[in-house]
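Lab meeting minutes (informal)
Scribe: AK
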Amino acid sequence: MLPVHHPSLELLLDYAAGSTGEAAGLALATHLALCPECREVVAQFESLGGALLEAIEPAAVPSEALDNLLARLDEPVPVPVPVPDRRSPADDATLGPVPQPLRGYIGQDLETIRWKRVMRGVEQADIAVGRGRTGNVRARLLRIGPGVRVPRHTHAGTEMTLVLAGGFSDGDKQYQRGDFSFCDRETDHSPVADDDGECLCLTVIDAPLRLTGPLMRLLNPFIRF
């Protein structure tokens, strides 16, 4: 089954232009590994970008450009996120719960990951990625038990969620393997995992969640998701 929920065109354009941070780029690249439709969109964006670059007239280089370049040689080099091969819609790198490029970050065996309990039926595991420009970006695996409902919450920033296995419902939308969800400050929701099995997701957030239920909001000073 192919994904039915996709990143926005703006996100795909940012990815094609190489302007996403490492964590967001990881989520988008992993979605591309599972979604031939979005792979084609990114390929078109990249082709368009290449054509525009060829059409641009060369500009004069300021005399201080070389000095500025030499001054940046000691800066850390960002780690590029691998782009899935668009010619291969499914192979051994996309089959199984952990497709590439995520597999390159966490390996294939989910049981060797150090899971941390968040609440009953919900566990998470941090993924080592760069923090991005804001310094607050986090990438995590989230494992939710069958039928478990995540407490109602909103977002102080943005949240990307990619389903790797199982599924969940959020309002009137159903998310399955490969589906991509984007939430922001306007979102106030309480997703619930499907009853027929565990739900495994990759999430990327750039600010803490904020509980909004009548009683749960009292826990905000003590909880950091």
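Next up, CB showed the second protein from the same session:
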Amino acid sequence: MVQKASKADKKIAYDKKLCQHLDDYTQVLVVAADNVGSNQLQNIRRGLRGDSVVLMGKNTMMKRTVRLHSERTGNSAFLNLIPLLVGNVGLIFTKGDLKEVSEEVAKYKVGAPARVGLVAPIDVVVPPGNTGLDPSQTSFFQVLNIPTKINKGTVEIITPVELIKKGDKVGSSEAALLSKLGIRPFSYGLVVLSVYDNGSVFNPEVLDLTEDDLMGRFAAGVSMVTSLALAISYPTLAAAPHMFINGYKNVLAVAVATDYSFPLADKVKEYLKDPSKFAVAAAPVAAAASSSAPAAAKEEEKKEEPAEESDEEMGFGLFDD
């Protein structure tokens, strides 16, 4: 006869397993497991097998284990997990890419009926069309103010009707009608609530950021730092080039307005005294552009003109019969 393990033995085994996972993994997805059945959870475990482990348990037990393990190891980063263990949640320990694991978890959703008292996660709209129900079932539609008509001995819904709004509780009439129509409006699965990575905790939306998003936000941050540094005249690595340029402009303006000069200002003063030098400097560039344009046009004409075939090449002369 096989002796069943006691509750104390199960707690010890669970505590050991959780501590082992905390030591082996540095990445954890905290997921909500509301309305997720055991078979569905088993499929998720099977799909993540290899580089990820799903661990469920009571929040009080998980918090206690995390706290004691943090004290034993001296790693206070584990304590960041404790505030996340609220509600019906579980932990997915992984060594894989967090975004890929999160996407894999999202695949395992199962359709579910609208049960009485359940809070609707989405809006439920009943589409128009033939319901296949006999006229004796019209009372359901009348209670819910759904316009119908009798068509060929069956009830037909005339217009689409928003039956349940997101956040509302499902009533008995709505649940009965959806059941009769065979509509399973909701789908449930593990939902990632938070991400733990080497002691840092962040929102799962961060996983959807691309490199372009990161570069854009970094550039916006550098721009703000530069603007602030320039406004308060505080030198930073980002603002330094602009400060040097602005300083050069100021010194150049003083040199142009006075007799003071320096090598770089001499060239500017020379051009200001004789503006025709600007035209002389620009002329070679314009000339080069204008000379290259006709040459390119002629070359193009040569390519486009087909070679004319002579009469001799065709095998007869001008006066041949």
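CB comment: The chain is about 50% helix and 15% strand.
No objections, moving on.
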